[in-house]
Amino acid sequence: MSASQTSAPSSPRPAGPDGAASPRRLLEKLSPVSGARLGDFPVADEAEVRAAVARARAAFPEWRDTPLASRIEVLGRVKQVLAEQGEHYARKISEDTGKPTFEATMMEIGAVPLLLDYMLRRAPVLLRRQKVSTPIVLPGKSGFIEHFPRGVIGIISPWNFPFQLAVVPVLSALIGGNTVVLKQSEITPIVAGVVEDLFRRIGLPAGVVEIVHGDGSTGAALTRAEVDMLFFTGSVATGRKVMAAAAQRPIPVELELGGKDAMIVCADANLERAAEAAVWGGLVNCGQACVSVERIFVVDAIHDRFVEKVREKVSRVTVGGPDEQADMGPLTSSAQLGIVERHVNAAVAAGAKVVFGGEKLQRPGQFFAPTLLTGVTPEMEIFREETFGPVLPVIRVRDEDEAVRLANASEFGLAGSVWTQDIDKGLRLASRMECGQVSVNDVIQSVGHPALPFGGVRSSGIGRYHGDAGILAFMNTRGIMVDRGFLNSEPLWFPYAGKVSHGFELLKGITTRSLGSLVKGFLGLRKKMTRPK
Q: Does the global pTM surpass 0.85?
């Protein structure tokens, strides 16, 4: 439980069979902008989670058997709801998170129809039965691959992009015929209500999407429930717990975890564009994105010029709440504010220099100044650990090779970027970066490219979503082989007597790709297919 959500008095639940009312635990939500109380929200217990999973399980057969075209029609209604309710939803997201309404509109809500359109177009291609080639040693047979839903998917989503990072995986699971139980972060309970409203409005059958509200105990209960897959977005520490819970059964798990994304600025980069990108890429959503720019590697030849450009642009970033139409809002989580302060203070104590910002703003709410640091080294905590806040750490390097080496010297590997006017060089450097997504002369926006898979390596997670991978991630795969059934027996079946030499000939044909040996061996086996009478 974060400091921005504290326990509130319990409220009674409806009376049970014995007439006694059981208490319901509540969480108090405080505004990250002003600290004002925004309301109390219930915490679902283990029994409620199990009941939600049971309803999703009961709804699964009918939704699975609903024709894909019909599922597509239902899910396509999301776009109409967002067209009608998008402004209202964006303002509720801003109220809950403190982020600028423009960011809530474009990065939370706007990303959903873009990614959904891709799913609706690609699902009929990906989910139909596909014929595959069959080797010559299996004559008369045909091979097929098809996909079928895993079942009930448990999705646990985070607080930094609480709308997009809940809705997109839910849609990805639903289009393939799965049902979903969704648990959203207790830090953003208002957005949880928005997501619930969206799925109610599109007219899904009862039980297809179940939403359970609560804190970490609710999420833990979902990992123990009888779901068929877990999809988690959040911290590495919690991801390990989710993975351990999944291993108990075992069931598939996808983890979208943290990042420490590297930005490599080459000597021939367009410094104006690179500096603008660094500021936006590090400060958008107050730096609370797994793909935020968290380490900027700048070659020595242009280091000072680049830093000065960034300093000048950071100084123009406005900070405030949604009503102030500022560029950057507060940190959504008060606990995260403490981490940002610790990282900056430790870096300065170890020799880093604050070029701009570096402290909490003296105003109500959870505001930290946009911060630019130089002199950051690999030994510092701010180089190694995810900061998840509005801090731009700059690391001076000799050349691009050193930049790539240091960029890869991390437990994380989610995304990164390369800045150069030589696109071939940019692609070469991108291919050397050990992460799931790389941009050349761009930052973060690759996440919104609907055809690109998204996910990380090492501690940044397991699995991919978005693109084709985002649909198939929630599907089982089945292989089917069909024989025409004309023969009463097969060359490899009993009896074995007299077949050894022909088997050696067939093996020779397989290993040397000799058509003559293949035919000779196969015909020899055919002659020995039946036992003498």
A: yes
